[in-house]
Fold this sequence. Notes:
Helix 1 (3-84) runs parallel beside helix 5, helix 2 (87-123) runs antiparallel to helix 3 and helix 3 crosses helix 5 (216-256). The radius of gyration is 43 Å and the shape is elongated. It has helices spanning 3-84, 87-123, 127-176, 178-213, 216-256. By secondary structure, it is mainly α.
Amino acid sequence: MNNAVIAHRWRRFTVLLVLLAVLSGNTPRAAAASDWDEALDQINDLYSSYTALQEYVKADSKRNQELRKQNTADLAAVNARLLATDKSLLSRLKSDADTARKKHAPLLEQYASLGKQAAAARKAGNLKNATAFDLKRNKLKAAATAANAEIKAKNTALTEAKAAAAAKNKPAKDALSPVAGLRKQITAGNKQISEAQAHRSEADKQYKTAVKAGDAVAAAAGMKRSCARMTEIRTLSQQVYVLEQKITAALRLAEAKLP
């Protein structure tokens, strides 16, 4: 093989090596450009959903807050109506019972004290004093018995009136019985919403920071995370709304059963 042929083949081999080097050097850059373009397309595709979800989340929150406010006001109104049942009668009977107890308190305290003094004197072996205390106590016995009877009658009347009012209120209170449990579920649901909102804020921050940095890949990832969290928030908000609606239904039933 002559020198001219060898030189020609060596030049062809060198050109191939150069081409391979150039192509291999561009591969990461080409891949990066491809990822950036794909991320930009994802942002473009998601943007309308991203902005719409923001409005939906805001509207859902407002809807839930308004229903919660209305339910709270209606529950307060129902409870006020329940407290008003036979209120004037109960107030008068309580006043009568308090008046009787206060009126007879000095007599009954004296009567009880004489009994204790007589017992103490007997224990000490002082029969003279024990007899004196017994005589004084027995002199008050009829008045003390009448006083106790009056107080008992007043208290009985008050107790019976309270029982009657409670019986009148029972149907409405039974209708309200699910409300406490529903509110606990709502509190738990709102806690989940708050946690999801915190994650959504982190995703939005990632998206906005990446946009400022010109990092389309990170921006697309942040937007996707934010959309996923907002979708989760919407689901949780709907669940809370259904629970509030159940409270509304319980309130309507309770109102219908008020005495």
